[in-house]
């Protein structure tokens, strides 16, 4: 680490913007492309489900990149990674930023990854410029943000925030019966730290928009003021096993046919709540899933979301009404397990204003936005002043190998992150 207090090397003041440390867009882009080579999919995306060998390889590469920056690496028992750069004031709380390196099975190269690697680029730029901030900086890779392998999503931040006990999280299993605890041990990702809120003064997360609004309106930076309210459900539809041949149509209690109606009802509920309503069925397991059998147990996962919590609750009421109608008409049972709710989260107004100001300094256009997806920042917001900034997603495509943001869009986001971090950490 370079000596502290070297004002000739840098300047943090807006009027001398040209002298502020600058990120390297090419280096950042190359890191994104190199990271995407871990768990590559044939269509050009990435598949790195949490705590798989691919996830472990991505984490190892990330640590290798951190090595020359003389950061202190800490890892907690749920696998969250913290990379700390000391400040000149050893008593000051850290300014923290980051996101996640895990992906969904059909993941792209940007969702989550851009937040971690832009954070790495911030630290690389400061290292090169010889800048020591007053407050320490902490770069974070949260474990299992996506929740594709282990439910619920945002698991690492949830445990760190005290919203999910560590022991309960470790006991959660994937579809093959492998527990989080086992996967942490097998992938070498169980750290010694007890998961807990950290000594942070602020939390920032750069993320892709995952929607079409910024591109459509030509906006370069989205300042996320809050998130939607989301309600998650596990549905179990129970009918009656029978033979697909002899059983007359009017005597069947087919759980999969009932599920088809449920799936369409879920979609209708969101369409009725446009433009700010969302609802999806995203997971299905059919039993016995055997040719020749009328299915008798079908399990679904669905969620409803809206900017307004009241409307999201109304959407749940509609969902329950639809379930009850379908169950009655088809002679099946539908059990609803409303296992989690989220938000709406309101992010820190002061941090939002800071991001607007820093974007204006760089002549970047901004707009306030509401996040429709879940993010680790939602867990941090109740604990520490938190904010998110978005960069555009081309055509709004996400959770898809075609997910894309341009090198310039990524660079804008990373530079703004650096500018904001510098102001927060210096004072
Ligand atoms: Zn993400």
Describe the overall structure.
The strands form three sheets. The protein has an eight-stranded mixed beta sheet with strand order 1-2-4-3-5-14-6-13. It has a four-stranded antiparallel beta sheet with strand order 9-11-7-12, with helices on one face. It is globular, with a radius of gyration of 23 Å. With 427 residues, the chain is α/β, with parallel strands linked by helices. The chain is built from twelve helices and 14 strands. The structure holds zinc ion. Zinc ion (ZN) binds next to loops.
| Global outline | globular
Largest sheet: 8 strands, mixed
Strand order of the largest sheet: 1-2-4-3-5-14-6-13
Structural class: alpha/beta
- Bound compounds, please? zinc ion
Euclidean distance between termini CA atoms: 20 Å
Spans of 5+ residues with little confidence (pLDDT < 50)? Answer: 1-18
What is the element string, with H for helices and E for strands? HHEEEHEHHHEHEEEHEEEHEHEHEH
**What is the oligomeric state here?**
single chain
Strand content: 15-25%
Radius of gyration: 23 Å
Kindly report the average pLDDT value: 94
| Count of DSSP strands | 14
């Amino acid at each position: 680490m370079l000596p502290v207090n070297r004002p000739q090397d840098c300047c943090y003041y807006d009027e001398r913007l040209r002298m502020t440390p600058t990120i390297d867009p090419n280096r950042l882009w190359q890191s994104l492309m190199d990271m995407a080579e871990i768990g590559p999919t044939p269509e050009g995306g990435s598949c790195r489900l949490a705590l798989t060998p691919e996830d472990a390889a991505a984490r190892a590469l990330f640590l290798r990149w951190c090595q020359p920056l003389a950061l202190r690496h800490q890892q907690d028992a749920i696998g969250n990674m913290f990379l700390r750069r000391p400040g000149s004031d050893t008593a000051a709380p850290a300014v923290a930023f980051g996101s996640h390196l895990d992906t969904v099975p059909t993941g792209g190269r940007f969702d989550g990854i851009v937040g971690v690697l832009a954070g790495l680029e911030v630290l690389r730029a400061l290292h090169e410029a010889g800048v020591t901030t007053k407050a320490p900086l902490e770069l974070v890779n949260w474990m299992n943000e996506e929740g594709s392998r282990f439910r619920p999503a945002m698991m690492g931040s949830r445990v760190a925030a005290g919203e999910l006990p560590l022991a309960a999280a470790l006991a959660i299993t994937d579809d093959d019966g492998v527990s989080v605890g086992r996967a942490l041990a097998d992938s070498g990702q169980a750290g010694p730290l007890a998961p807990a809120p950290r000594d942070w003064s602020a939390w920032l997360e750069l993320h892709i928009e995952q929607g079409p609004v910024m591109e459509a309106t030509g906006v370069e930076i989205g300042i996320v003021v809050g998130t939607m309210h989301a309600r998650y459900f596990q549905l179990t539809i129970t009918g009656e096993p029978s033979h697909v041949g002899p059983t007359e149509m009017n005597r069947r209690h087919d759980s999969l046919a009932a599920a088809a109606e449920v799936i369409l009802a879920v979609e209708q509920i969101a369409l009725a709540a446009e433009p700010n309503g969302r609802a999806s069925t995203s997971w299905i397991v059919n039993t016995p899933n055997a040719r020749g059998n009328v299915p008798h147990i079908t399990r679904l996962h669905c969620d409803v979301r809206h900017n307004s919590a009241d409307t999201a609750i109304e959407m749940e009421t509609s969902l329950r009404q639809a379930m009850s109608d379908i169950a009655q008409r088809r002679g099946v049972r539908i059990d609803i397990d409303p296992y989690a709710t989220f938000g709406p989260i309101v992010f820190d107004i002061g941090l939002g204003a800071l991001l607007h100001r820093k974007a204006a300094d760089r002549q970047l256009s901004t707009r306030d936005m509401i996040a429709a997806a879940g993010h680790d920042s939602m867990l941090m917001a109740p604990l520490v002043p938190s904010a998110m900034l978005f960069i555009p997603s081309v055509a709004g495509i996400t959770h898809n190998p075609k997910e894309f943001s341009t090198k310039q869009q990524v660079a804008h986001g990373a530079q703004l992150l650096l500018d904001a971090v510098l102001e927060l950490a210096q004072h």
